[in-house]
């Protein structure tokens, strides 16, 4: 699934069950600390996906340790993103010579819990969700919006190294194309000497999941997610 919403130059790997045999480097285990068996398996499985993606890029396996702010620290020359939710783990990586940043997110395809939408959605976004739900009530558009917001933050953070609140970007979903635009409502980070003012991404809904991905691949400030 994940590869279907990634552009050329990015390599994704995924699991739908945890791998009990998935191992950790000593530095990863030390960073994780004392946690439940379930949390350790989740942590190891998503890193197993990351190492498979490294192999897909022709790179040797390497540890992926969280930084103090919680973001994954990728090997030199690599950009990437990881996500995990109930029944799903995934990682997407690329060479930094090809892409500047990646953000992926997966969520269970169901309605957001009560009260969450009011906290994460702008008035314009709630109006869009109302319109989309009237057109196709089979899709939980609030969850699609949420995953797009999460991918936006994950693409933003490695470039800006600062938080981006849910109101920091306005999402416009394009259901016919399975794409979305995240227009920044705050000053954007500089990439190649140009300020980014928006991200473009893809989303999909399948096998009980809502999933999204953003990549930043040029110095124009617009991400390139179109497939040939």
Low-pLDDT parts are 219-228
Number of DSSP E strands: 12
The N- and C-terminal alpha carbons lie at a distance of 18 Å
Main pleated-sheet profile: 5 strands, antiparallel
Element string (H = helix, E = strand): EHHEEEEEHHHEEEEEE
Number of helices: 5
Count of spatially separate domains: 2
DSSP helix fraction? 25-40%
**By helix and strand content, what is the structural category?**
alpha+beta
Mean pLDDT: 93
* Morphology call: globular
Q: Please list the strands of the largest sheet in the order they lie side by side.
A: 6-12-11-8-7
- Rg over alpha carbons: 17 Å
Folded structure, characterized:
It is built from five helices and twelve strands. Residues 219-228 have low confidence and may be disordered. The chain folds into two domains: 2-103, 4'-phosphopantetheinyl transferase domain (Ribosomal Protein L22, Chain A), CATH 3.90.470; 107-216, no CATH class. With 228 residues, it is of the alpha+beta class. The radius of gyration is 17 Å and the shape is globular.
Write the layout of secondary structure elements.
Blueprint: E1 10-15, H1 26-32, H2 37-56, E2 65-66, E3 72-73, E4 78-85, E5 88-95, E6 101-108, H3 116-120, H4 123-135, H5 141-160, E7 169-174, E8 179-184, E9 190-191, E10 194-195, E11 198-206, E12 209-216
Antiparallel strand pairs: 1-5, 2-3, 4-5, 6-12, 7-8, 8-11, 9-10, 11-12
Keywords:
3-stranded antiparallel beta sheet, Ribosomal Protein L22, Chain A, 228 residues, alpha+beta, 5-stranded antiparallel beta sheet, disordered C terminus, globular
């Amino acid at each position: 699934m994940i590869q279907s919403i990634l552009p050329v130059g990015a390599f994704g790997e995924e699991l739908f069950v945890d791998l009990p045999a998935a191992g950790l480097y000593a530095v990863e285990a030390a960073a994780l600390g004392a946690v439940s068996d379930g949390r350790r398996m989740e942590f190891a499985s998503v890193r197993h996906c990351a190492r498979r993606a490294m192999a897909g890029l022709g790179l040797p396996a390497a540890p992926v340790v969280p930084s103090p702010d919680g973001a994954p620290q990728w090997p030199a020359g690599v950009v990437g993103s990881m996500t995990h939710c109930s029944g799903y783990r995934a990682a997407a990586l690329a060479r930094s010579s090809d892409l500047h940043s990646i953000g992926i997110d997966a969520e269970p395809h169901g309605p957001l819990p009560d009260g969450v939408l009011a906290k994460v959605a702008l008035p314009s976004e709630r109006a869009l969700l109302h319109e989309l739900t009237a057109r196709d009530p089979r899709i939980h558009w609030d969850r699609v919006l949420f995953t797009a917001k999460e991918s936006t933050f994950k693409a933003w953070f490695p470039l800006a190294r600062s938080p981006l609140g849910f109101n920091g970007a306005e999402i416009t979903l394009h259901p016919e194309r399975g794409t979305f635009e995240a227009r920044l409502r705050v000053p954007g980070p500089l990439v190649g000497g140009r300020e980014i003012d928006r991200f473009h991404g893809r989303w999909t809904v399948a096998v009980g999941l809502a999933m999204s991905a953003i990549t930043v691949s040029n110095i124009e400030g617009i991400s390139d997610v179109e497939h040939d």
